Known about the structure:
The protein is mostly helical. Helices cover about 80% and strands about 0% of the residues.
Amino acid sequence: MNIIVIVFISFGLLFFLGGAIGIIRMPDFYSRLHPAGKLDTLATLSMVIGLALFNLHHFSLGTLLVSIKLFLIVFFVSLASPTATHTIVDAGMRAGLRHWTKKKQRG
């Protein structure tokens, strides 16, 4: 059981790292929102599932209820994060932010 928990938490850390690198390396506002929305949601999902499984290590009614609450957090984050990302992109479009375009080199 501990190996599964370690794998979930390690994947979560890896996804958070990938999201942070993606935010730093992407060229514009819209491109930066993609790793922020996708990888952070996946990392949160992975880490909270790992914590919920770790919590069930000593099984009782109390730990079961806490794990159910953690899975509800995963559910609501999975709903809210893509919705928030879409709303931020929509606000950027309405504000007139332009998409990044690759400039041609002269010479």
